[in-house]
Design brief:
alpha+beta, binds zinc ion, 4-stranded mixed beta sheet, about 15% helix, two-stranded antiparallel sheet
């Protein structure tokens, strides 16, 4: 019988496990359940979500263009998702160039939040 005792790393935010500490550190940073990557605006009645249509001539945003446009009804600003912090610098800059602010994440919260009453 072979017995192999190893350290198993568990994600703080989801059920993922890994034998590699480095891989788990990277995963936790990008994990979609990490509060830093979660938008506080989802479910708020002041969040306006619109589908974005593109023409085929919009080559600039190929592959990175957002499919949905998020607007805050409180200040009228176009917002991008907090998970962009996990994107490449180029992709972040491209998204920030078409956004006016980043949605607050679950740690930052927002004093204007009001439940829209729609379960997601
Ligand atoms: Zn995770």
């Amino acid at each position: 019988m072979k017995i192999d005792v190893r350290t198993v790393y568990h994600c703080e935010h989801c059920k993922k496990i890994s034998l590699s500490k480095g891989a788990m550190t990277l995963h936790e940073d990008k994990c979609r359940f990490n509060p830093l990557n979660r938008s506080y605006c989802i479910g708020c009645k002041h969040l306006l979500v619109e589908a974005v249509e593109y023409s085929n001539t919009d080559e600039e945003f190929t592959g990175v263009r957002p499919r949905r446009k998020f607007t805050c009804n409180i200040d009228g600003k176009v917002m991008c998702h907090p998970k962009i912090r996990t994107f490449s610098k180029e992709r972040q800059e491209l998204i920030m160039s078409i956004s006016q602010k980043i949605m607050p994440n679950m740690n930052e919260e927002c004093r204007f939040y009001e439940d829209a009453g729609i379960p997601f």
